[in-house]
Amino acid sequence: MRSLLCAAGAAGILWAAAAVPAAADEPDGFTLGDPRITESSGLAASRLHPGIYWTHNDSDDGPYVYAVDGRTGRTVARITLRGIGAPRDVEAISIGPDGAIYVGDIGDNLGGTWNHVWIYRFPEPRRLRDATVTATQFTVKYADGPRDAEALMVHPKTGRVYIASKKEDGGGALYEGPARLTTGGTNVFRKVAPIELWVTDGAFSPDGTRLVMRSYFGARMYRWEQGGPKDIGSVGVPIQQQGESVTFTLDGRTLMYGSEGRDSEVKPVGLSGAQLPDSARSAGDAADGDGADGAGGKGSSGGQKLEPGFVKGAVVLAVAAALVVGVRRLLRRRS
């Protein structure tokens, strides 16, 4: 019993450490309060409208994209896409250097059996209001056969589009599209690197030097070198109902994590050390080192993020210990 109580105390300490508020220079999180947004599956920070985040529902919604104010969580515009077919399984959103928004209708609820998927592209609106815009539709296939994917990233310098498949049979992978997408035929995406993660979203840093990939319960940061990713370590993630999306803030110093569900929260995790994009690193950040497993973020005790699985285990242990203590006290009273 004593060892169990000690474990409960340790769990309480870990829980307190996990609850340390974000660093002062991190943006606040926000809640997606729009009742129409129930399955937010992608997230992209607007470059034209600082503080605005673009998102969309997963499926069964329609050709809609939502602009959300990161200060209030209020939807300030719903964009309806015309000129495309009926969306099937929209999973990702990204913004390219051409100022266009790219929407990835790349999911496959049939387990990777659709022989093609789609990407939609439209100019980011200069005025935030409900509107209907004409989008361009691109047909996409993978060189090695159908894949289930939830992450689409547009490199902010080259404009090349990448898709990350989920880690299923044969493992996940990063696929590279052609230098320029075309409407004149099928755009073939080819595998350029394995990604050992059950990827639910990804994003390039604004300067293009970092690539983050997230799963439901974890994330990895990659340095982008010579057109490919180099793994530099895990990144802290917040505990969420169903972790789905991620994007960098415009300064590159913070990751914003989104989740599915009604009234879902978007939560910040600050970066430091080797995980900061090159343009965001100061001399002090560089001194933190470029080790293979860089700093996990600012918003935690000691500059490191606790892995969600570890925190959850600690919480379960604490609850179990509390139940045992309660039963013990009850037995004492009866005796």
TrEMBL record:
Q: Gly residues composition bias: which ranges?
A: 292-302
Which residue ranges does UniProt annotate as crossing the membrane?
310-331
Name of the molecule in the record: WD40 repeat domain-containing protein
Record's signal peptide: 1-24
Residue ranges, annotated region (Disordered): 259-303
Alphabetized, the UniProt keywords read: Membrane, Signal, Transmembrane, Transmembrane helix
Q: Which InterPro entries match?
A: WD40/YVTN_repeat-like_dom_sf
